[in-house]
Amino acid sequence: MKISQHIRPADWHSVVYELFGALGLLGLLLLVPFFVSIFFQEFLYSQIFGVLAFGSTIVGFGIQKLGIIDSQEMELTDALIVTALSYLLFSAIGAIPFLPIKSFLDSLFEAMSGFTTTGLTMVNETTLPASLHFFRAYSQWLGGMGIIVLTLAILLRPGKTAFKLYSSEFGETNILGSVISTAKAVIKVYLSLTVLGFGAFYLAGMGLYEAFIHILTTIPTGGFSLYSGSIGYYDSAAVSLTVSLFMIMGSISFPLYYLAAKGDIREFFEDHQVQALFLLVLIGSLIFIISFGAIPGNIAPGIFQATTAITTTGYNTVSTGGLPAGDKFVTILLMIVGGGTGSTAGGIKIFRLLILLGIIRLAFFRTLLPKEAKLPLKFGKLTVNQEEAESIVAFFLTYLLIMVFSTLGIVWLEGTNIVNSLFEVASAEGTVGMSVGITSSALNPVSKLILIVNMWLGRLEITPVLVALYPKSWR
User: Fold this and answer.
1) From CA 412, how far away is CA 428, in angstroms rounded?
2) Do residues 228 and 133 make contact, with C-beta atoms less than 8 angstroms apart?
């Protein structure tokens, strides 16, 4: 019997029911940019956000309350599909406010880049209305926490459905026993880091509004900025190093902060992902400092370049397009690795990298030891079984295959060289947002779609999107 014959099709009643709930949640969330547009007296955007906010809330929650669609307890397949389609739904509706200045495809690109915390952009930051500046930052801030986690904490009842939605978005780190309580605790950490970062940015030299917008895109490791020069606009070591610190904080597993706040600080610094992150930042910083020129003035830019790449934030202080090929390649490697699991960072994640290195180590030692020797694969206190190891290897290979074919597509469609095309794709798939200048409204529409799909795949770590697109999941 074929494997596909064992697959349980999705319960589309449950999927559609939950998607209408997500639509209602989106309506509530859009009330914030609606009031912001009123504050800035940009009434065109007040109309747009107002219609979207009230319309989405009424339709989404109204359909649920009317009982037109029956809802059953979701299975994992259903939860994965809801997760994937929620990001697509939010991005499609989030594209509408950009339509006064951009085509729908460019608007969809911008919205997907926001909600997936990527940061690649189709707009000129210096000409945007204040309402759109806020909405771009706000979408990244929401996307960083995860639409599904917000749904759990605000709307969904406790139970199996909640756990499956939570784990499909955020992993299975359950620090308080209850998924709802865990999601709320993580959101408290997220809010605390946002407030702390806002104060730090202001003290480092940003204005109040600038500090507010930039912290909304730093903690989610998103990278949208008010300026086309990004953080390089400030030409300040104090600003660069402060932003670097909070980029690192956004790429560390959020449950670790909660445990540290409860007094378990030692576990925070003994965590293997935290240690590996610090080591990679140090190595990357040294490489860039030496490449930029080993003088005191290049220390902050070198640290920033390594940090923005490994945390997948995507801010700039130097011209990325002007970097030597070697520096671009190092940046690509860091973007592929990404931050810690349970953080807002993208990439394959440091946890998977360490497991892959462990698998290579085991393969080497098995050639030197008797066949009957048992060598467990360990990650800290966790023993990784064969099924989990195979899953990690499969994810890594799939991630690279998507990157290779997407890069070849960009090379063919745009005629750009392989290094620059790989850089742009690695940035999209890793939800980074750094660009060598390829991303613009002048891109071929198919190239735009390739990057949009890469952002979608990268934010959700591939599996939910593939499940949603797999025909056997539909029938």
Assistant:
1) 18
2) no
Per residue in 198-255, pLDDT (tens digit) is 999 999 999 999 999 999 999 999 999 999 999 999 999 999 999 999 999 999 988 8
Residues 6+ apart with CB under 8 A from 407: 418, 421, 422, 425
- pLDDT by residue (tens digit) across 188-204? 889 999 999 999 999 99
Contacts 24+ apart (CB under 8 A), 445-448: 445/105, 446/409, 446/413, 447/409, 447/410, 447/413, 447/414, 448/105, 448/106, 448/109
Tokens of residue 190, six digits: 């997220």
Provide the whole-model pTM. Answer: 0.91
Q: What is the CA radius of gyration of the chain?
A: 22
pLDDT per residue over 319-377, tens digit each? Answer: 998 899 999 999 999 999 999 887 889 999 998 898 888 888 887 877 776 766 666 67
Break the chain into its structural domains and give their ranges.
3-337
Residues 6+ apart with CB under 8 A from 302: 285, 286, 287, 288, 289, 290, 291, 292
Contacts of 419 (CB under 8 A, 6+ apart): 325, 328, 329
Tokens at 423, concatenated: 């850089």
**How do beta strands 382-384 and 377-379 pair?**
antiparallel
The 3-state secondary structure of the chain, one letter per residue: CCHHHHCCCCCHHHHHHHHHHHHHHHHHHCHHHHHHHHHCCCHHHHHHHHHHHHHHHHHHHHHHHHCCCCCCCCCHHHHHHHHHHHHHHHHHHHCHHHCCCCCHHHHHHHHHHHHCCCCCCCCCHHHCCHHHHHHHHHHHHHHHHCHHHHHHHHCCCCCHHHHHHHHHHHCCCCCCCCHHHHHHHHHHHHHHHHHHHHHHHHHHCCCHHHHHHHHHHHCCCCCCCCCCCHHHHHCCHHHHHHHHHHHHHHCCCHHHHHHHHCCCHHHHHHCHHHHHHHHHHHHHHHHHHHHHCCCHHHHHHHHHHHHHHHCCCCCCCCCHHHCCHHHHHHHHHHHHHCCCCCCCCCCCCHHHHHHHHHHHHHHHHHCCCCCCCCCCEEECCEEECHHHHHHHHHHHHHHHHHHHHHHHHHHHHHCCCHHHHHHHHHHHHCCCCCCCCCCCCCCCHHHHHHHHHHHHHHHCCCHHHHHHHCHHHCC
